[in-house]
Amino acid sequence: MTQITDNDARAIEELRARLGSRLTIVGHHYQREEAIRHCDIRGDSLELARRVPGIDADHIVFCGVYFMAESAALLAREGQQVLLPDHGADCVMAQMTPAALLDRVLGRLTASGRKLIPLAYVNTSLAVKAVVGRYGGAVCTSANAEKMLNWAFRQGDGVFFLPDKNLARNTARKLGITGRDTHILDVRRAGDAADLDAADKAALVLWPGLCAIHARFNTGLIEAARQADPSCKVIVHPECSPEVVRASDGAGSTSYIIDYVRNAPDGSHIYVGTEINLVERLAREQAGRLRVEPLRASACSNMAKITPENLRRTLESIVDGTAVPVTVPQEDAAPAKAALERMLEACA
């Protein structure tokens, strides 16, 4: 396997050199080292969304999951191809919000005339972003959730946050919004189980989704870390439960976590609660200066679907003209782009 990976790595670099400025490879921080080492641009969801419109290459290869590549295809200029090495690299959280169900639920929530603004976490399909755009809503990331939640409240008389109830609750807490002002919607029975009266009384209505990767972290792990080293620091991603976030020393996006570790004093001992590839990369980067450990080894199997082998094959398909780009349905393009651009404008 190592020999195959080494051969793939050499082939990838040769193909990159051959394609030159016609190619840009971008990758999310959760990618495995064997893939992200070939990326020209690395970032979290917000950084990558910001960077895509400025890319001049004819071909953008996205090392990440499908919703990220969809967003890139939406923001790319006309004529650019956005390619995903494995179209099966999806997101469990994104799958928790079917677009048709969201549209029906939003219709029921706003039938009374209430101006409920949908705010979709970037971990959603393009079809969901289109529904959100049609209702005057926007997209957010973990890096700008607080700013975008404030933005959404200014647009209407309530906010419908989807799909991550944990990110929503952790962000709401920063804004002083308590449990009494929130309602987690029951979307079973095709949305008919929703308590419309309770939702109508809540300032913040939440879709009942979450991230399976970050749901694995619990307060017992934090207690064990502090018992092992009372001087340690614990930082986690805000997709973790509110209980885990409250028990930690800090919570924020992948960019926040990277900056926290890089700016920590020499000799620090930091436990990190997020996807294992980023934690291990930080541990290697900081070896000898400080100690970085995973709160628990939690890996995203979908991010792991991008491999040196399928990355090589994708670059070969560009060279031989058989590449199959990620496409955007015409009927969803304008409203989904509006939702994304509202975020980029609000966070400019």
TrEMBL record:
Keyword Transferase attached: yes
InterPro entries attached to this UniProt entry: NadA, NadA_sf
Originating species: Candidatus Bilophila faecipullorum
Enzyme Commission identifier(s): 2.5.1.72
Keyword annotations from UniProtKB, A to Z: 4Fe-4S, Iron, Iron-sulfur, Metal-binding, Pyridine nucleotide biosynthesis, Transferase
SUPFAM superfamilies per the UniProt record, alphabetical: NadA-like
Gene Ontology, cellular component aspect: cytosol
Name the UniProt record assigns to this protein: Quinolinate synthase
Pfam families attached to this UniProt entry: NadA
